[in-house]
Here is the input.
Amino acid sequence: MTQIISIANQKGGVGKTTTAVNLSAALAMLGKKILLVDCDSQANATTGLGIEKPALEASLYHGLIGEADIADLMVSTMLPKLTIVPSSVDLIGFEIEMVSAPRREARLKQLLVPVADQFDFIFIDCPPALSLLTLNAFVASHSVLIPLQSEFFALEGLGQLLDTIKRVKSSFNSKLKINGILLTMFDRRTNLAQNVVEDARQYFKDLVFKTKIPRNVKLGEAPSYGLPVVLYDKQSQGSKSYMAFARELLKR
Amino acid sequence: MTQIISIANQKGGVGKTTTAVNLSAALAMLGKKILLVDCDSQANATTGLGIEKPALEASLYHGLIGEADIADLMVSTMLPKLTIVPSSVDLIGFEIEMVSAPRREARLKQLLVPVADQFDFIFIDCPPALSLLTLNAFVASHSVLIPLQSEFFALEGLGQLLDTIKRVKSSFNSKLKINGILLTMFDRRTNLAQNVVEDARQYFKDLVFKTKIPRNVKLGEAPSYGLPVVLYDKQSQGSKSYMAFARELLKR
Ligand SMILES: Nc1ncnc2c1ncn2[C@@H]1O[C@H](COP(=O)(O)OP(=O)(O)OP(=O)(O)O)[C@@H](O)[C@H]1O
Ligand SMILES: Nc1ncnc2c1ncn2[C@@H]1O[C@H](COP(=O)(O)OP(=O)(O)OP(=O)(O)O)[C@@H](O)[C@H]1O
Ligand SMILES: [Mg+2]
Ligand SMILES: [Mg+2]
Here is the structure.
């Protein structure tokens, strides 16, 4: 049974894309069949996997407005078991164009129906906003994986996100649950990070994954080469921690 | 003549709010009269200046939809010369509610008219999106200050932002210009940061401010105490660099 998981947090820069790209790649290295949907007009996941945007004829936008099928949108990556649905700047127009369209919150769900049983996991990289795009991701998903940066503002915003998930669960998608909370950019030298981790574990208990992703410069370098860190620098802490996280996710 | 400056970048987590709060506070310490408008539904600038959100009767949302005047919204802070227009989660609804409203892009501009000559600077902290809220900020502003994190994804997204500024300039606000590009979270130990700085200076030349803001844990700690870093830890690198930046901005 395919698991469809949104990677979301409206707080900006917390490691959503880095998690989407590197978790997908790590699971593909462990033999799982993965589809990654880039649902952000910044298209960072698309670039992070080395896809040349100008060469694309269609992207997620065209699928959401009904001009293309999912089969026309899927692009292979350097990892045989990892496929991506790329994004582009066109996605900026989606929100306004869809305001009065019927079932505007279920466009992504409909687009994924034909492929839902062809993959072990489908991950959706969300933009930093509780917008119609993120709503589409939540309606299409079984669960939400929340990257949490070990910083004060990140912890503060969690309440809004949890409220939104509850609201989507009651009005559009009763199956939706929280997959888990992943601590990212953890710097064990600072009290701030330790405090945020303690607060998160106290409040969210087992929802917090045991694996913590450390701050590691290789995670920042890899995207400039269009590679996931597991291919860019296999021995780095960044790569090892995402491989460990992939194994922890499989055990759940 | 009051300068109205948007602090914007659709890339998330690049230091928009940290710059908005600490630049405003540094200029207030230097004797300038400052208004900070929190234009993000995350309301991080509001929390970063110690404003208790539940105690607020009205916030920016109420001003934008015409239910409150700017005078009802301005709240004083711990610094006599720094005033804030706080935000709240209500702002999430603005985009959808305003879709067919007349002059929806000029709501913030109209709201600020009564106070435009009472301050030396008005700063607008923008959300991580090229949305109607950011459009309102650009239409209300004389210029845009762009925080740029020394990371690959941040540099990649700059093209979209510059295109948007050009488009706003030609359709809504012919005065709009780029104030400058501020390098944030600079870690001189990594090649990645050095490369991004070199690329930015090569491409944007004098638009890049000389002051670089280093990565400094005090900047992350200060908001948890509801204080700008210039009050939280005056001797820290974070505080010194924002004071230096405030002086550089005044010289321009
Ligand atoms: N563990 C880490 N160590 C070091 N750098 C990291 C780490 N995780 C992410 N980064 C870097 O931090 C920046 C922010 O991460 P990323 O872009 O993945 O966050 P995001 O939540 O997807 O941002 P946005 O809100 O803009 O979509 C990127 O430049 C990324 O390369
Ligand atoms: N120079 C710095 N050194 C260390 N930490 C920093 C620095 N600047 C910002 N931070 C921290 O990094 C995180 C991101 O910064 P901030 O929230 O200001 O970015 P933003 O662009 O406003 O994010 P968003 O896109 O969500 O609005 C915050 O937790 C902040 O405290
Ligand atoms: Mg992202
Ligand atoms: Mg912010």
